[in-house]
Design a protein that fits this description.
single chain; Monooxygenase; 2 domains; 65% helix; rod-shaped; exocytosis; protein transport; Exo70
């Protein structure tokens, strides 16, 4: 059976994975166009999707063209406003959001969900920037106030007029703007419910975690990015209408509660998805490996998937700190506490990976190949950990690669060298005579054993060139050095060597051909 050939329970994929049949999984590799190894494009700063300047330019153009002013003036918060919202959401390429309600049960119409999540993120960021720019434009139209009692009376009268006449004025425009902004944000937030519910029911909908989780992290980052601007927007509206008794005067508190509730719902879903991810990657049937697969494929597919997942978590450490705060504590967590928790999460995953590798290797009967399997996989782990630049206190066993090299040399090559150097503590002439005859035969046995090991291991695969060269040098140091000493010692002791099949240099050339694979 090939490496990771059975159902891995999660449908993970790796952009850097080998395409060889021996390393390919029928289900762990089920979404090959998607992976944890996306690089940095979708991580950290959410503004990278289209660029902050581009978003600002789009928002500025929408406001400058007078498009928003027309929509807001026509909007009165009634059911008849749905066509206006459809026009507005169509401009943002998310008109489908208006079909969602908070009690919706996600169905196939919402897929491919990963595409919808990215479109939603761009739309929300653009929407918030447009609303912010529109509010600034309204603010510039604000009537000049006169300090003192007179200004208070004028402000009160303007608000009173706005409720008794149809004449447009500043306060009335602010009220209409607040209603429009509230409706827009609330309708956008309904999609969070769909995503969270889909994550909880992903087994029923066959949604692969490698598709959902990255998008969910980006959505969480997007909401966190937009939150201060949205709250500032409604705070200014609430402050302006503080003397009123209408719904708009309470918008800040209401929207603050709703935004935090939606973000909390998303963080709960993310943590639930992360538990599923880890469980799926640690399932026994995701770690099956045969002798043929271990020899031919180098690195286990699930090792790549887990390290891609670790990379995703590390590159989203700032987001995960807030998710940790939402999910586990519900209170403020310092940057240092949050950072340490993310590192601990990653080291725990890597530790679990190491245990699964050890368990999987037990199914490989050849002890030498078992070491090569562990060496290949752990070397990849260490390479990826080094690229992440984890803090020095993170508990990663960096000496494991050398340990596997030492064990490999002992189990594969040390027994062969015993044919060259046999201890003989007896001083009897008869024993010495027999010892000389035995040493003659031992060279033949050494050569036969060398040819056997060389033929068997020549096409074992070590994909990393530096690791391959490192192991070759270690074998040459052990085998060729002892072979040279043997050939030099016998003539020095008055013994004759039979003609060797290979010189030390020829032996070295053969050993330098090892581990290229087929």
């Amino acid at each position: 059976m090939a490496v990771g050939e059975e159902n891995c329970g999660g449908g993970w994929s790796s952009a850097s994975s080998s395409s060889s049949p021996a390393a390919t999984s029928s289900s762990c590799n089920s979404a090959s166009s998607s992976s944890w190894g996306w690089g940095g494009d979708y991580y950290s700063n959410i503004g990278r999707w289209s660029g902050v300047h581009e978003l600002h330019a789009i928002a500025h153009r929408i406001v400058r063209d007078g498009y928003m002013q027309g929509l807001i003036r026509a909007f009165d918060g009634a059911a008849a406003d749905e066509p206006l919202l459809e026009m507005w959401f169509s401009q943002l390429d998310v008109e489908w959001v208006l079909l969602i309600h908070d009690d919706d049960n996600p169905g196939q119409d919402w897929f491919p969900l990963e595409d919808l999540m990215d479109r939603w993120i761009l739309a929300l960021l653009t929407m918030v920037q447009v609303l912010h720019n529109t509010q600034l434009e309204l603010h510039s139209k604000r009537p000049t106030t006169v300090v003192g009692v007179r200004s208070a009376i004028l402000l009160f009268m303007s608000r009173l007029l706005s409720t008794t006449t149809n004449s447009p004025n500043y306060v009335q425009e602010v009220v209409q703007f607040a209603r429009f902004a509230e409706a827009s944000i609330l309708r956008m937030l309904a999609f969070v419910h769909v995503v969270a519910l889909t994550a909880l029911k992903d087994n029923q909908n066959h949604r692969a975690p490698e598709i959902l989780l990255p998008g969910m992290l980006r959505m969480y980052a997007c909401i966190s990015e937009a939150l201060p601007t949205v709250l500032t927007l409604f705070k200014q509206v609430s402050d302006l209408l503080a003397f009123g008794s209408g719904h708009e005067s309470q918008l800040f508190d209401a929207m603050h509660h709703i935004l935090l509730h939606k973000r909390k719902k998303l963080s709960n879903a993310i943590w639930g998805m992360m538990d599923k991810v880890k469980s799926s990657l640690l399932m026994d049937n995701c770690w099956q490996v045969s002798h043929e697969a271990a020899a031919a494929s180098g690195v286990h597919e699930t090792t790549k998937l887990m390290m891609n997942y670790v990379t995703l978590l590390w590159r989203n450490d700032d987001v995960l700190k807030f998710i940790l705060q939402d999910y586990h504590f519900g209170m403020f967590v310092s940057d240092n506490e949050g950072f340490n928790s993310v590192v601990n999460l990653i080291t725990d995953i890597i530790s679990s990976l190491g245990h699964k590798l050890e368990e999987a290797s037990l199914s490989i009967m050849d002890p030498g190949l078992r070491c090569i399997f562990l060496l290949n996989n752990w070397h990849l782990v260490l390479q990826r950990v080094e690229s992440l630049d984890l803090p020095s206190w993170a508990l990663i066993e960096t000496c494991m690669a050398q340990r596997y090299i030492d064990i490999y040399l002992d189990v594969s090559w040390s027994p062969m060298l015993c044919h060259l150097f046999i201890e003989n503590s007896s001083n009897s002439p008869q024993k010495n005579k027999l010892f000389g005859l035995w040493r003659y035969k031992s060279l033949e046995r050494f050569e036969l054993e060398f040819q056997r090991i060389y033929t068997e291991q020549k096409f074992w695969k070590i994909p990393d060139p530096m690791l391959r060269d490192r192991l070759r040098k270690a074998i040459i140091q052990k085998v060729v050095t002892h072979y040279s000493i043997y050939l030099e010692e016998r003539p020095a002791k008055g013994m004759h060597n039979p003609p060797p099949t290979n010189t030390p240099e020829q032996l070295k050339e053969l050993l330098e051909e090892l581990f290229e694979g087929y």
